Amino acid sequence: MARVSDEELHQLAAELGDKLIARGWMLATAESCTGGWAGQLLTSLPGSSQWYERGFITYANAAKIEMLGVPPEVIDEHGAVSEETASAMAAGALAHSHAQATLAISGIAGPGGGTPQKPVGLVCYGWALEDGAVMSSTCRLDGDREEIRSRAVAAAIRGLIELLG
User: Fold this and answer.
1) CB burial of residue 30 (10 Å; 0-12, 13-18, 19+)
2) pLDDT digits over 88-124, tens only?
3) What is the DSSP string of 124-149?
4) Of 26, 47, 69, 113, which one has the fewest beta carbons inside 10 Å?
5) Would you list the domain boundaries of the chain?
């Protein structure tokens, strides 16, 4: 499978921006395996400063703990690539920003780093809203590193669009 096209990514980003503008909300992102791709995509849209507040690139576990307040025991017990960690990243991005909505992505983009329990392509997402709603999801994506990362960005944005209604 090919990576998600730039056109599709930009359409998703624009749809998310429209939903945030309609609510008068700001967004913060917390990314690990995507290395800031979601933030770069979202800020590539003209006018995104109306709804994008900040991004956290927390690739290392220490960064997740220090920048987002992810409890070390969550990472120790569940691993960096887990719904529990992704949810904590999303909640931490909300707590450490002025945003009303957040998305978080943590996964194994490969080509190495996978295990039988957590194979390459496993990606976990977290979303948090100011009203206290926190949701998470996990999926297994096929493809090479770039394909996995592009699909992870698209899935995270789609999830927040869905959560916002």
Assistant:
1) buried
2) 999 999 999 999 999 999 999 999 999 999 999 999 9
3) EEEEEETTS-EEEEEEE--S-HHHHH
4) 47
5) 6-164
